[in-house]
Structures
1.
Amino acid sequence: MSPFTKSLTLSGVRIAAARAAWRQYSSLTAELIENMDKKATWDRFYTESSSSTNTFKHFEWFFGFDAVRDFIMPLLQTKPHPDGLLQVLDMGCGTSALGPCIYRHSPLPVRVTCADISPIAVRLMQEHVQTKAIQPHNLSSRLEFVELDCTQLHEHYGCSSVDLIVDKGTTDALLRSKEGKWKANQVLKQCLKVLRSSGSLLQFSDEDPDARLLWLETEAQEPGVMAADVGVQEVGELRGMTYYCYQVTPRSIV
């Protein structure tokens, strides 16, 4: 991959793009955009976006499932474990269709858990799925929506119990908040704790590899406790932005 020379911080173009996306659905101010690590921010966002229309509409941060299905679905080709379904977590799901699309398209049986810190987002998704009666590709698959603080994944999952974690913009929101970096670090460590040794964390982001790879490689290593391999692929360009898929895979501690 060619070297990158862009700023390691959120550029003015990215700030403008983020604000435009939020204004489409909400009257949230720039001050609140800086507090995307707060539950109250997202509760207000989903309350306002749902009250502005009588028709449910998915809010997709960055892009939808079709843009990244080729990164996700190949990781769900191995047979489920003897103890049941492949465990998939859509972390910080909001009202995205990503999790339900994995449920719909996976030929192997999966349990897709769509988790968000906002109970309002969770309720909206539960109501939508009940109305639409989404059918899975594999009749043994399961889909659930849970209210969950992703810095506390261990409260919902046991160690080494998850096969795939998908993070589409959640870590970006934390890292770009005034007080969110510590939470982003905790989320990464929690992901590595609950992933199986054969599992992966996929982070979809518009942050340049020269910044994100350094952060991942630093925070995913803790001598004697955890280690991980980190890679990156380019997803493509949308509305003048280049997006990336960062794959983090746990590595055995020697």
Note: The first strand starts at residue 86 and ends at 91.
2.
Amino acid sequence: MTDLYVSLAVLGAAVLLSEAVRRTAAARLFPGVYWIYLLEAASTFQLCSCTHELKLLGETAQLGPSVGLTLTYVVTVIHLTTFRGATCNPSGALESVCRGTSGVGAAAVLVACQFAAAVAAQFFAAAVWSLGLSDVHVRHQRFGFRCFDPLGGTLLEAAAVELGCAFAVQAAAMHVHRLDQKVRAHFIAAVITAVVYAGESISGAIFNPVLAFSVQFPCSGHTYLEYCFVYWLGPVLGVASCILLFEKLIPFLSGKSTIGPDVPAVHKQKKKTR
């Protein structure tokens, strides 16, 4: 249990550090474009840092699926309630460009901030593990912080799982505005926990290109391009297919030209909850 308590402390430290950056930025930069970039960077750092620790704990501590899924759910709720509208996902920036709510240049800077934060999270995780605060950290340090093949299936199977996970989470985000405000974060967290349970053994159920870049890409077993195929192309296609289905195909088949007034509301709510 000591390993679990140490990992919980690391998770808390990552969240508190990120929240301190967000609050400082809000006090000095809000409103403004720099506030948005710093918000994305801080929140992406939090997401990646926590996932690094949870992944290590799940792979080495043998806590059991119930504890792992409970941690996934609780940490996801914390993320959703502290991100303050940050997407922490390049797919969100790409979607905003396609919808015309953001320019290509602004989206590119946003994605760059996300990837920079993902790299920073790698250094943060390595620095914490180097302290040897738990047996899990000591063993991981002994192996040079190496991680091994994260795929439990073929490349096509893993890409299909990432596509399906991204589709499910995107669909939940697009329709969560119909629920009461108090349960929205819990609903999205429940969906994410469910897809993690369903797809973790095959691809790790990352469904986020920048998170995969931080957590999965350093692992051995496959080439960089193969990881791009699974963890970048899969989620992007999942998000795109979900939007096309619910905003184009279904309205077309039902005789409606578009979703209309719901689109901005959905997009705004998705930003708040992803």
Note: The chain is about 75% helix and 0% strand.
3.
Amino acid sequence: MSYALLASTRYDPFLLSCVWNNDLDGPSPYLLLHYQADRLIASAALNDKAFRHGTTLSNVKALCDKVVREHNDFRGETALKVRVVLNPSGELSATATPVKEFTSDPTLPSLFNPITDLPPTFALTIHIDTQPTSDTISLKTTDRRAYDDARIRAGLQPLGSLDPPANDAPDDVILYNTRNVVTESSVCNVAFYRNRRWVTPPLAAGCISGVLRRWLIEQHRIFEAVEDELTLNSIKDDEWVLVSNGVIGCQLGRIKLHTSTKTGDYVKD
């Protein structure tokens, strides 16, 4: 097996005030950790010949608690991106890196109506990839070659690189498949505003089954597109795009079909 299964979540004390983020134990400082554990367990079951079983929400949470305690010892309550890896042997490991604390509900951008609402003062700059990608799957794994290739084409660095991006690089880049159907960005699920609602590519198009994507669909904040609804031809310059993942929550961006300077910091999943 050339890859391990991956879950990227966020530890943030602000999340304790978000009732929608509660798990079976009550308020949780981890962003939808029970959904993260569900996805790890389901993904391992799909690969039962390679991955040993035994992953549970309790041991994922215990591991996250351990790495948070180790990182925040003498540092206070620092918000963290927590990266959990499930190896084929069944071994779980985790690392943590600091992120900027939430100051508001991270799902609020999904309520934005581009037709009637005042636009936010900040939006990410999002480009479209210059060529199709054919080998993405719905599992979230450590094999990021297709996404890093798209990032490089956009002038961005692969995740984990300390090298600076190109001066005209966007904040993110959106991928599409060989049928010219939009799939996802290099680090997020995406949704476009169509017929007065946010519409996201179906898993069959080749996008990862994101945990926040799942929550947004369950809450009727976004809806799965019908077949070939979100093609390249339907994407317009400067239109709004909703991006989401298990670390940043939701953010709004604007499509730039031509080279444009990026607008700010962006936390990757």
Note: The longest helix spans residues 57-72.
4.
Amino acid sequence: MDVLWVILLLLLPLLLWGSSTFVFYFKKCFYVGWMMVLALVAIPLCILKGGGRNVENMRIIRVLVRHVKYFLGVRYDVSGWEHLQTEGPYVIVSNHQSSLDVLGLMEILPDRCTMIAKKELVYCGTVGLICWLGGIVFINRKKTNDAKNVMADAAKTMLDDQIRLWVFPEGTRNQTGDLLPFKKGAFHLAVQAQVPVIPIVFSSYRNFYLRKEKQFNSGTIRVNILPKIETKGMTLDDVASLCDKSYDVMRAVFVNVSDSKPTSNGPSRN
């Protein structure tokens, strides 16, 4: 058994250096495993400090997660910090590329902010439990009426508890090199609550992370926090135009800041 461990330890650096596919799976497995461990650490802290389900627990989660980027070789270049200094509730909308988005979210997450996420996430072991403790709002994407009711309740909660909500309006992960059409839920939410929409754009991951090609190198993600879009005085008739305006602004920035050409920042041989 000792000999086997020695062989594995000797092979590991060779595989990390020589196989981009191995690097991809190694980083992905490490990421998932380490996030589950961090969630296990965070659960008792959130229960002791927050007393249970509480948006303030996102502070604890944010502190615990922020170092993970260094292990994966990911860095963030953030501009527009001043736009998150808006007082009171607001809705953040951002593009959604992969599970790595969680790291970018935690990099800039403002206080008293949580997310809207798919209901399936709550069943993901320790990660699901810590999401629940962090006050994440879960929606059933397959049942439109349920989702609408959750959004209506979320609008009331935003105002009553003075919280911010982060939404991925594409509705699913997307690594096509462009933005998918936006769903209107986030904009219904903002109009119902009469709170601003703050668009945030993450540059394409394609210069270092390609899921189909099994490439996961080191890279820098450019994050642009854009000026808020006011919704005061808007009605449900304005939701479509608000959605279109947000999409157009975000897509223009995404195209401008993204480099769609993959670069070799790590092993390139399989």
Note: The first strand starts at residue 74 and ends at 79.
